[in-house]
Design brief:
By secondary structure, the chain is mostly beta strands. Helices cover 0% and strands 37% of the residues.
């Protein structure tokens, strides 16, 4: 993993990051999640490019627990084994789009309640779960919200704090499957 982190080594108080961790750091450019220690020794990480998580064997996103802001877009390919996205609970702002692409996953979509601002579109596609109860802290989705290929969706919850959004596109096309590059 090549990562440019610029920070003072000050520690994070009682934070589980440890006494020798940097309080704040910045990763310049895109960050692709093919590693397990993105947040080791960092408490708050700001990514200036895109964040891409495309390892479909992951069971959780704990290695990303320090990510608080992504200036670009976030692409999350949600594999069958991923049952816990609480590792992204501290993500408060995404400057671009947020793509959640399921891969035949029948789990309900939960989490992302720390996200308050989305500069682009929220795109949720390709899930076979029956419910969405997420994004309860999201206040603004400037580009809008798109729901696609959600064949089993019966309950749309969450979004309890939503004040403004661009257009809403609930094209729930039940039999089509999204391509990997959605």
């Amino acid at each position: 993993m090549a990562c440019a982190l610029f920070a003072l080594v000050l520690g994070c108080g009682g934070d589980p990051c440890g006494p020798f961790a940097a309080d704040h750091a910045e990763h310049v450019g895109d960050l692709s999640f093919n590693f397990k220690e993105a947040c080791k020794r960092v408490c708050d990480l700001r990514v200036t490019g895109d964040l891409r998580v495309d390892d479909t064997t992951l069971t959780d996103l704990d290695a990303l627990s320090c990510v608080t802001e992504v200036e670009g877009s976030v692409f999350l390919l949600w594999g069958d084994h991923l049952t816990d996205v609480s590792g992204l609970d501290r993500l408060a702002r995404v400057g671009g789009d947020l793509h959640l692409v399921g891969h035949g996953n029948n789990q309900p979509i939960k989490g992302f309640d720390g996200l308050t601002e989305l500069g682009g579109h929220l795109i949720i596609a390709g899930f076979d779960g029956e419910s969405i109860d997420a994004f309860n802290g999201l206040r603004h989705a400037e580009g809008g919200i798109t729901l696609r290929y959600l064949s089993a969706l019966t309950e749309l919850g969450g979004f309890r704090s939503l004040e403004s959004a661009g257009e809403l596109d609930p094209s729930l096309q039940p039999h089509a499957r999204p391509h990997r590059g959605v």
